[in-house]
Amino acid sequence: xxxxxxxxxxxxxxxxxxxxxxxxxxxxxxxxxxxxxxxxxxxxxxxxxxxxxxxxxxxxxxxxxxxxxxxxxxxxxxxxxxxxxxxxxxxxxxxxxx
Length: 98
What we know:
Elements: E1 4-11, E2 19-34, E3 77-92
Subcellular location: Cytoplasm
Protein name: ZF-HD dimerization-type domain-containing protein
InterPro entries: ZF_HD_homeobox_Cys/His_dimer
């Protein structure tokens, strides 16, 4: 299974010229078990038991969206997002007179 990591940078608009504030939101996206209902056509409910998404190809090609274990599209797999906010606290520049 392949984990994805997305980094979003947020700049603090209220920072003064001597202070630098920045915060990053780090999101790890993981695709879990397949939730496709294979018996929907006959009015039932049955899943295939695929425990995690495994892409059939490399990132950037069509195979990256198809599961090697069950053959379903990635959208049928449960999406798990872990979000973490990382803050680089302000650094004050010292203004001294010489």
